[in-house]
Design goal:
six-stranded mixed β-sheet; single chain; Rossmann fold
């Protein structure tokens, strides 16, 4: 049985449009964020979940993490329904939501980690070993006594990832985990995620616009667009099908040989555009 099973997932939102000039009330509009989305993920898999802004990626992750309740469809993660068994369910997941922090802004990050230790009821010895492992791998040992507000964006992302992994979750949701990181830090973070996935069997759902992250980490990708699943398969299959280019050579000899408009029209005809 697959670790994550999603069938016919649907979610709609009602949004208020900008008030029209001369109108007292704003009109309402129903937006379908997810339209009958189905997929499955095996335990220990590292899945890239990609698509343009507004495609429904974050809505899917919020449903899978138990934050939102869908309007239709079924979801099972490790035999649990996220929004029904939330108290037990969240013990087994970790989430990094881009710019949304789970750490406290004005206190040293070690204090936030200590609070997370108590929230997840991590034994003292296990917490100490895990904290040393994560801070060394993410290179944030020297930042533990620094308040979150004084860290750079890249440093904050490392701290957020560390906080999400302290309790050794079975499932990790990552939303743009390498945002703000320099090239060297990106490579180190990718190596860390590969190691975490390989050594602990952590299932990872990675949402990102950085295709280098996808290429480095994920053998399988799922593409979402306008709330519908557009593609689900191996990354190389996606690249072979959609990532292509044309090389065109043209020579314009003199005025009598033709005009530019005719030449461009011929090029488009050859390319079947």
């Amino acid at each position: 049985m697959n670790y994550i099973e999603v069938s016919g997932l649907r979610k709609t939102f009602t949004v208020r449009k900008k008030r029209e000039k001369g109108k007292l009330l704003r009109k309402k509009e129903t937006v379908e964020a997810l339209k009958d989305v189905s997929f499955s993920v095996e335990k220990g898999e590292l899945l890239g979940y990609i698509g343009p802004n507004g495609a429904g990626k974050s809505t899917t992750v919020k449903i899978l993490s138990g934050i939102l309740t869908p309007d239709g469809g079924e979801v099972s993660v490790g035999g649990r329904v996220p929004w029904k068994d939330r108290k037990e369910y969240v013990k087994h997941i970790g989430v990094v939501f881009g710019q949304r922090s789970q750490l406290w802004w004005d206190v040293p990050i070690i204090d936030s980690f200590s609070l997370l230790k108590d929230i997840y009821r991590i034994p003292a010895d296990a917490y100490k070993d895990r904290l040393e492992e994560l801070t060394e791998a993410l290179q944030i040992e020297e930042l533990l006594r620094t308040p979150l507000r004084l860290l750079s964006l890249g440093q904050r992302m490392k701290a957020e990832l560390c906080g999400s992994l302290l309790h050794r979750p079975e499932l990790l949701f990552l939303d743009e985990p390498t945002i703000g990181l320099d090239a060297v830090s990106k490579l180190a973070l990718r190596d860390f995620l590969k190691k975490e996935n390989a050594e602990h069997g952590t299932t990872v759902m990675l949402t990102t616009h950085d295709m280098e992250d996808i290429a480095a980490l994920c053998s399988r990708v799922m593409v979402l667009g306008h709330g519908r699943k557009l593609f689900d398969g191996k990354l190389q299959t996606l690249l072979d099908r959609y990532d292509y280019d044309h090389k065109v050579s043209a020579r314009y000899e003199d005025e009598d040989s033709g005009n530019i408009d005719h030449l461009i029209a011929s090029m488009y005809k050859d390319l079947d555009l």
